[in-house]
Amino acid sequence: MRPLTPTETSTLGILTAACLAVLVNTWRSDGEPLFASLAISGIAFAFTYATILWSGEVFMRKGFKGRDLSKKNGGEIPETMGLVCALVYLLVLVSFLPFAFKSHIVASTLDAGYDKDRILEGGGMETGRFLHRFPLEKLASYGFAYATLASTTILGILDDAFDMRWRHKFFIPAFAALPMLALYFVDFGVTHVSVPVPLRQYLGVGELIDLGGFYYVYMGAISIFCPNCINIMAGINGIEVGQSIVIACLILLNDALYLFPAAHRPPHPAEESHLFSVYLLLPFLGVSVALALHNWFPAKVFVGDTYCYFAGMVFAVVGILGHFSKTLLLLFIPQIFNFLYSAPQLFKLVPCPRHRLPRFNARTGLLEPSVATFEEAQPLRPLVGEGLKLLDTVHIVRVKTDERGRVTETSNLTILNLWLVWRGPLREDRLAVEILLLQTGVGLLGLWARHSLALLLFTADNRF
Amino acid sequence: MRPLTPTETSTLGILTAACLAVLVNTWRSDGEPLFASLAISGIAFAFTYATILWSGEVFMRKGFKGRDLSKKNGGEIPETMGLVCALVYLLVLVSFLPFAFKSHIVASTLDAGYDKDRILEGGGMETGRFLHRFPLEKLASYGFAYATLASTTILGILDDAFDMRWRHKFFIPAFAALPMLALYFVDFGVTHVSVPVPLRQYLGVGELIDLGGFYYVYMGAISIFCPNCINIMAGINGIEVGQSIVIACLILLNDALYLFPAAHRPPHPAEESHLFSVYLLLPFLGVSVALALHNWFPAKVFVGDTYCYFAGMVFAVVGILGHFSKTLLLLFIPQIFNFLYSAPQLFKLVPCPRHRLPRFNARTGLLEPSVATFEEAQPLRPLVGEGLKLLDTVHIVRVKTDERGRVTETSNLTILNLWLVWRGPLREDRLAVEILLLQTGVGLLGLWARHSLALLLFTADNRF
Q: Can you tell me where the transmembrane regions are (chains A, B) (predicted)?
């Protein structure tokens, strides 16, 4: 890894100084926490950008390194650098708390008047400020969000350090999500969902249906799905962190629809939830963009499983604690497609090679679909082979058959390979850009559908 | 590592089954959370005990291993096994939350009556249960305690994986403690301390003095001190986890003084804080005793820095969020002594060898004080040498001098070596037992002083 260039040093220095000035000013003038969040995200960006450069050597010395298989003469570069993002993120999330609650601290302090006698007489000494005015439910959300993300980081590190098996690590995020689910259980406890109008008469239910325990299974599934689906849509420079940035921006856009005063007056009842989401996502964008600059083609660092889990869990946390998990899923459509498309290989219906990332053609410098080949000794089950051939005819996969019509080879079942099947060989960064544009387009379409078509299915928009 | 013996399997199985039965029963009958906490701690013990045996191999394969220097032919054994304790602890802490808040969940649900229309009309859908009855400040404490301990675990893993330098890792716990300090800042905000009566007229202050920002520095110092002082009172089998168990038991004794109804009626105002402490410490005892059984002489596993940080931070969390950090320090007197006694070597006044653990005499099988020797090329500063000779005359250290009276060698400045200077060579387990008895005795004395002598200095007992 190289040291910071003078240009980088001065740019990051000026950015940090400007952000610190905004922070101090926001604190003094009791300004909007949003400005503090933006400033803290700027600092998080600068700090992450520099720390990745500084710590790359240490990571490599300790064995956190890998070889880029899609480069002509790729040396080893640091792996697991998403850990830096996670640590900086946790640090700035805590630093933001005093800003988020400044107005309440001042209000409740004035309320109590810091009247020592009164505090002493009332037995209030033990609790300090009088608590009934303080938005403790918000504070608890931050605490448990932090707890969940810190747990995710622990399990990510363990995965990166111990190379866990796929079937073990698939369930890891469920453990990490426990603090969030516990908070939901003891605090919110809402397990009702709105039933789409057309379904009500068939199901014989009213506007709301109480899913009870199943709602926790659903939330657990969300927190397993988000981290894992980012982890499996991987394999080319910049794609893990790129898709995370796109999804974060789309959620922020959705938040803005609720928060932008012109769109909804009077203030939308879900405003607090969406502010929570904004405050969690802005610093996430800060650390992710810094990582993306190092991880973009040609990558100088790898992000590691830690980043994928961490990013996915940030989305799960804002979706679940912000009560918009179904909207969230609309932004994960490419990931959902990729997961379903991968399923035959993940569940071993179709043999799954160790790596499924697109094949690098050293002669052209372009990526081509990688393939899984089937040995004579371990042929495909005939039914599966017929299925693959059927998919081939509608161009959802590319197979090769031998003279007897048996499938001997198929393109690996990932969205990246499928895109290459459709578009032909592409350079690595071109492929990443196109997939990210696809993600953006599908996400925007999803949000449009969510906000304009939802009224056809539900009696009111934005219930969740 | 060996598999579980049939006796172990059946004992752990019966224990787990019994604890599960207690848990189910407590849940059904809305029993005291204390029983749930005891049952969960039992499960934590069984789970930790078994997982350490199961995962030892994996840890060793990944390079987390070390050689026991105080054994005749010590092979390599797994290192960092305290990580298992930390992970199990975090898991059971979350699992305990529904039990801790069961009565409140029921109460607030009944209160709201789960009246769907009322919830909908009142806009309460977003928040579910009505919040004003729910003890959210307690819930936030658990969330931030978890957040702090998870952060400590992350930094402990990084320390164990990256072998950080002493001067860097000294400050690690301060970062991990940030969530707790942030909670304290935005939620409690009590920065007043009682002034001892005799000091009031000299300082010209009243009963309370507001330390403001200095109180946060003080709390930060506590959270740096507790983890580090357990980490430096180390080096023989069972001492890290043994001292943690003793301290935890002493804190529980102190909690019992507040909670036991016979001692204080009506219920003490600090009861909630001490229940919080009990609920955090019982599962800690569970995982620690399990680790101790594997780490006791002759050790089958090492605990690692992760455990020391984790244990120290558990104490810091209960002391700070439970508002009895000064009492806590009374239980750390041997650690405080060890830290002050070590200071000349920690701050390089006296040369500090890589390891300061007692020296194993392979001939006798006993431990003797280890020594730091001073080369002719790098002699001691004369003043430091004179100081050491002075300490030697009062038997606080053992030095050797050359014919010109210059100090050539000193026993290493740790409480373990000092004890060996006083008591002569001891077997490793004997030394551990004696130091733990010392810890127990001094702690009991401290608690007695705290509760019987405090009235001489303060106008009321148990203010904090």
A: 12-28, 34-60, 81-101, 139-158, 170-193, 213-233, 245-263, 275-294, 306-324
